[in-house]
Design a protein that fits this description.
heterodimer; A: alpha/beta; Isopropylmalate Dehydrogenase; 2 domains; ten-stranded mixed β-sheet; two-stranded antiparallel sheet; 11 helices; globular; B: alpha/beta; Rossmann fold; 3 domains; eleven-stranded mixed β-sheet; 13 helices; about 40% helix
Amino acid sequence: MAGKAWRSALSQVVGALKNETPQSRTFIRGIQTVTLIPGDGIGPEISNAVMKIFEAAKAPIRWEERNVTAIRGPGGKWMIPPDAKESMDKNKIGLKGPLKTPIAAGHPSMNLLLRKTFDLYANVRPCVSIEGYQTPYTDVNLVTIRENTEGEYSGIEHVIVDGVVQSIKLITEQASKRIAEYAFEYARNNQRASVTAVHKANIMRMSDGLFLRKCREAAEKYKDVKFTEMYLDTVCLNMVQDPTQFDVLVMPNLYGDILSDLCAGLIGGLGVTPSGNIGANGVAIFESVHGTAPDIAGKDLANPTALLLSAVMMLRHMGLRGHAKKIESACFDTIRDRKVLTKDLGGNSKCSEFTEAICQRMKDMD
Amino acid sequence: MCFSTLLWGEGYDTTLFATIWTKPVLLNIKLTLVLLLSSVHLQQQGENIPPPAKYGGRHTVTLIPGDGIGPELLNHVREVFRFTCVPVDFEMVNVNSALETDDDMNNAITAIRRNGVALKGNIETKHTLPASVKSRNNVLRTSLDLYANVMHCQSLPGVQTRHKNIDIMIIRENTEGEYSSLEHESVSGVVESLKIITRNNSIRIADYAFKLARERGRRRVTAVHKANIMKLGDGLFLQCCREVASGYPDITFDSMIVDNTTMQLVSKPQQFDVMVMPNLYGNVVSNVCAGLVGGPGLVPGANYGRDYAVFETATRNTGKSIAEKNIANPTAMLLASCLMLDHLNLNDYASLIQNAVLTTMNETRLHTADLGGQGTTSEVVQSVMRVIQSKGQFTAEL
């Protein structure tokens, strides 16, 4: 009896040591809970699709659904509902659908609120060409990592005199250091060969110069990853001619916004692009970046690919690479087959049919 | 001397005319012509800029070789001009980018003020130098108030690209915005960079864009902005564009956010006609469009101000890695020199050289390395000159 207990304890330890990443060690036993924010418009239907696919894949994930409509907290400040915050703080990992920002609602955009609440400093968007969804660009395989908290989007603007407006772009040493180190860490963990810093230090000498210095310092600590720097305009020029020369790109806020959307355009648009936001204290929220599409909401016409690929990204972040690979292959195979596709991908199937096709494929894989 | 301040000073004013006649100063014909033309120009504020000074039927143009591939490409331009007997003389002004002092730049700016027109290569900015040393190209643009950067991106029939039938005119505000070079470190480790948007400059560039659209028979102008985030700054720019648009009911006006614009450009660039935008977005969009039509070696760019015009390649690359290897593509610089000839009203020479260049570009075997071929710069230039000669023009020896 004692011998059996000792053997099972030993196998647990061996199993722990065999695991690939440090994060996965916490999740070997049992199910991981993830906060799910369905969102508005087509959000609920695509979230349901993702939950169904995860169930079919037998992924060890338990979903905790929460709503994030802005409410006024004490002191008049807008904040997200406390139960949502509590859930995220406990689970650390979240999956979010599209949220609508009503104009003139009085409160800032929900995405901005979430970003501020959890200090989501890095926006990561892997852009990989999807076989079966033809664009003029094939073989795209790059990742854009964008600093998400400061830079040109600090929101500090003044009217100096009537007709003259100044907008302040803020670059701090701390934020630049954090994003640079995250970029190299990501490159190392995902076996990427090089990191390129994108900047405009010839014009914005001090601000982008500071960002560049921090990237160089981080490069010193990660000698196994190649580091290059390139001007923003050169990156744009080369990206549309030959995107295969880029691997991981790290940059401040505005350039990141433009470049990440440019890269999304290369692979087919926001409807098929995954995205993840990494925050301080181990918090990570993965999301689909397209809009709420109110015109097709509730009609079972939505394409769940973006949210699904973001969920796959989430699985990889959590260390569940096996399940991630399974779901991703099923999704890509279904799209490559071109038999069951939603309208935006060029077919005329329903969302539920597309979901069913992916689930069936995974069952066949087992 | 009063008259030197009149020539080099920033603002011409109406007392200028009175001063010529009251001061008993001996002026030669050329200078009187310049001053008279300038005062006439004042009365036609906002009309076409009159051609710069011309003496004996020949124009003088300032030439700034710059760094990297600039010097060799500009030499080829001179070669083609000499061959075609174009009545333009070049005044060469060198700018050494390694020096920290501004004397070189001041000489260049003075020369451009004197001649009114310039053709330049890109001057490298070493960003290891301290922040007080501004980008030389930027200093040139702001000192001469070259407020409009115009770039015409057209698909060339002989060049293979992923997208076909692109025909976009990009008008970019060239003096303010993010390129104001106003930065400071308020606290150690925190740097602020100011982006300035003014009503005057925004109205000016929007006006320029709509006028150009009307002149060229274009139907639609799109303003590119990020006013959802930078509500005051880009909001002001957008408002100015809308105001100007109301005065041109024959031209459709719409606006698009910059990240959506780049996404649309890589999927469906044929939807765009004329685009107007502030400085930084202009940088991004013009580079994306240059990449879409075949690369930096193909597209010429022009910088127009009220009184001066400077022509260069659209994407302003120094091309250090391909300098002096005879593999650079001379198309962009040659087409820029054609734009310059059009500006000087030497339209016949402009179309002659332009047609020769485009004919040469259609031949795949002459394509240089940036277009995926094996051709050299000198082969392309020789071919251009042969085409010019074949048109029966009076030329020098090949």
